[in-house]
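Sample entry was shown:

___
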Amino acid sequence: MRLEGVLGEITGEAVDAIVNAANPSLLGGGGVDGAIHRAAGPELLAACRLLGGCRTGDAKATPGFRLPARWVIHTVGPVWRGGDDGEAELLAACYRRSLEVADELGARSVAFPAISTGVYGYPPAEAATIAVRTLRAAAASSGVELVRLIAFNQPTLDLYQALLSTNW
């Protein structure tokens, strides 16, 4: 699996699947979630209503509708509560489970946002480390060939690039 950090807007990614940093209802919200719902169109909300929500650390898929991506994989990241409430394990589960869903769909390319780093308050450096470490560990068992870590801003891209340049 090739991992790369990219500065950009996830809704414009021409990959098989994009990952949505969703809330538990899956019915839209702010940040990445709101942007994906707006770009995909009202069909996405209708499809999400059929899924019955999603637990933190889990992931569920819908078609991408009006997005360049064929699928949207919705995952619910943890709210940061200081780091002693299982947040790291739940965040890692988001990345692992999203890759599992991508494999079930036959996706070969996937774009991830920085899950939980917006309104959920996860510290960006810790979240980026968990993302890269988890995706590297899952690479051997996944059929996904390309993972793009989409950074909304330069500081996040810098974190990804520093982590991706190390061999740990």
Q: What stands out?
A: Residues 2-164 form a domain with the Leucine Aminopeptidase, subunit E; domain 1 fold (CATH 3.40.220.10). The two ends are 16 Å apart (CA to CA).
